[in-house]
Amino acid sequence: MSEARPLSPGAVIGILGGGQLGRMLALAAARLGLETHVYSPDPESCALQVVRRVTVADYGDTSALDRFARDVDLITYEFENVPADAAIFLASRRPVVPDPAVLATTQDRLVEKDFVAALGIATAPYLKVDSPAELAGAIEKVGRPAVLKTRRFG
Question: What is the pTM of this model?
Fold first, then answer.
């Protein structure tokens, strides 16, 4: 798809996700003369209260995603747990920012940490842990205090 261009007043920003950040984004966009269309699987999403256009459908519903894409000028997401496959699908139809590859990287904390470390940016010590046995070894290497995080969705 083509690159994102500056939006003119009246343009429509598609927002994947209808939570608090989506609500704040929609309100900020309105002050700039931009409209928003929220796509959310949850009909009770708080962002739906402040937008004119809404699509309530599962992120895997390609027919709904396609209709959504036809109604917006640019697409973004309000949180990192939007399925990357949905963003990739939409990127073939409209500009999606940030790029879906960025979304995929930020969805997995280990992939994200490895990416940042590969750039030479200092991070807190970390190790991959996939089992209780690996956890004990990781704590031994990293030391205490230590924080154990899920790689996704948490």
Answer: 0.84
Residue type, 136: A
Q: Domain count of the chain? A: 2
The answer on 81 and 124 residing in a single domain is: no
Question: 73 and 114 share a domain?
Answer: no
Domain interval for residue 34: 12-106
Alpha carbons 8 and 34: distance in angstroms, whole number: 8
What residue ranges in the chain does DSSP mark as E strands?
12-16, 35-40, 53-56, 74-77
- One domain for residues 58 and 119: no
Q: How far apart are CA 132 and CA 115, in angstroms?
A: 25
| Residue 19 CB-density burial (10 A; 0-12 exposed, 13-18 middle, 19+ buried) | middle
Is the same domain home to 88 and 64? yes
| Structural contact between residues 72 and 48, judged by C-beta atoms closer than 8 angstroms | no
Residue 34 tokens read as 């931009």
Tally helices (H) and strands (E) across the chain: 6, 4
**H-helix or E-strand spanning residue 150:** none
> What pLDDT digit, counting tens, does each position of 45-59 carry?
999 999 989 999 999
Residue type, 75: I
In sequence order, what are the residues at sequence separation of 6 or more whose Cβ sits closer than 8 angstroms to the Cβ of residue 123?
113, 116, 117
